[in-house]
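Step 1: inspect the first sequence and its tokens.
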Amino acid sequence: MDDARRLGDDRYRLLVQSVQDYGIFMLDPGGHILSWNAGAERIKGYSAEEIVGQHFSVFYPPEDVAAGKPARELEVAIEQGRLEDEGWRVRKDGTRFWANVVITALFDERRKLQGFGKVTRDMTERRNAELALRESEERFRLLVQSVQDYGIFMLDPGGHISSWNTGAERIKGYSAEEIIGQHFSVFYPPEDVAAGKPARELEVAIEQGRLEDEGWRVRKDGTRFWANVVITALFDERRKLQGFGKVTRDMTERRNAEQALRERRRLVGHLVDAQEVERRRIAWDVHDESIQSMVAVGMRLQLLASRLPEPHASAVGGLDESVRAAIARLRGLVSRLRPPELDRHGLVEAVAGYVDEVAGRWGLAHSVRDDLTAEPSPEAAITVYRICQEALSNVHRHARATRVDLTLATVDNGTLVRITDDGVGTAGGDAGNGHFGLIEMHERAEAAHGWLSVTSTPGEGTVVEFWLPILPDVSGFEP
């Protein structure tokens, strides 16, 4: 039995001696070191020969020794049976490390103190990691707290406010002291509260992980603002709900600007529609009345010329030629007012016919390239045609160009048109900025919910590029 106990003691001593991650050693009742393991040597830097017999206070910083900390820890261990502490300790080379220390008082069967067992672990890396984490969390907290443009705050699982940042105070008007602890439904209009919207939003956030919403919210003073809200459900590693993160942004100015833009587009759209209706009416009146009347006059002049002797017949023939020229000019006017090719053959042929007509008359080399894979709506087609008319007119009046090229393509479910000339160009990149024709082109494109850009380089020419959706947006052309 004694041999077995000795064998067990030897194995236990071997185990303790071999441990690397923990410094395990014995102290006598006065605090002097009696034993030393490999872990203690690795952590503290002393060999057994160097340290056995010395007082364990050698491991404490001078300020702790002066304050009597080593002796006080032994007293607590005797009174309570053990003591656990974390703090700075000193290695042989004088460097400090953060240690977790457990001191256990060792009593014999008669409760007589035989000494102490001491286990030390170097926790420096863990402490540094924890400090870095705390510093990171503090920096993040300061960041969130300082954000002015977003209200960022936390809710508990029941929807009560548990944190509050500067942005939330600026947007909603409550100080942290006033609002923390209240239910977040205080920000919703009475009709939304009555409809159960706050609770429903939390339910959706729990089910889907997050919820995004735009709608009216209420400030402390009772005024309303248009808010973009994101609510994120916060779960721990066991998927237990810990609360919600809520980010609110005041979008009132943006909403007002969007509404103003929509209203402007609607008004411009009405103006464009009214222009087209008036153009169509004038074209029909000219075609059905003026041209037909002049055709009748021409036929009578021809009949009269056939019955008159010379030189009266030649004079009447000259009048007939003047009438024919006037009819041709009126037909050209009708075509410009409401190009029949748009209704008969589509956008490309109408634009190509117009480019051939005017570029040929102005002596410009020209080309029209068709890369369309989808025909735009009649509303979009007439807008494309009108912008092309104005752009080509600008080339004729201002560019001093020798060539103009036009490309139509289907891009992003819309019609992209590029008109390029080799004229003189302008400085500043935006040709004709402020010119009435350019303003009208921009307004037409925007009214159709598209865009237009004009870029120009001195000596290299100008590029007009615009895009319109294939189908009109009814909100821009509502009656």
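Step 2: inspect the second sequence and its tokens, then contrast the two.
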Amino acid sequence: MKLVVQQFLSLDGVCQGPGSPDEDTSDGFTRGGWFVPHLDAAFEQQAVDWLGRADALLFGRRTYESFARDWPEMTEHPCAQYLNGLPKYVASRSLTRAGWNPTTILADAVPAQVAEVKRRPGRELQIHGSGRLAQSLLAAGLVDELRLVIAPVVVGTGRRLFPDGGAPAGLRLLSSTTTPGGLAIHTYASTGRPEYGTYGAEA
């Protein structure tokens, strides 16, 4: 399977708490819900289409617990059949049981276990949210594709997907589009280590 990271970002790169003020208040974050005003029908349909490509889902603990609480109750939403029905993996050393079936807990050597899941037949293993997990797997060279959905807002503080001191990564733009609500959707393929050069240097 191809490992795909799907992430909501602000213009200044924040990925924390896009969905509501109380979604993720860790480290004193108080500016959650910044993504919601820019949602529209075009993006909702795009999200459904993306989920239709998944054969499994991968989460960090915090995102998993949030999704496991909410999505079983949202059965009329077009994404629910995928989120509730697909095989799920959650990376966590603290969870001992996971009731949002079917779920497998990855407790140790997460990159190695994710690599093993990737070797199984299928289309996409999708990471939704789960910024810290996405960072670690990007650093491990396991991410094949990134789908970044950028909202036209500067949050000013909060956890970022690409923090200072993070692992460098080369990317190649596969597609770019916008929605009526102002979301910019960029899809990138991972190309390994980034290349460097000097402007104006002779070939």
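Step 3: confirm your contrast with the notes below.
Residues 9-18+31-192 form a domain with the Dihydrofolate Reductase, subunit A fold (CATH 3.40.430.10). The first strand starts at residue 2 and ends at 10.
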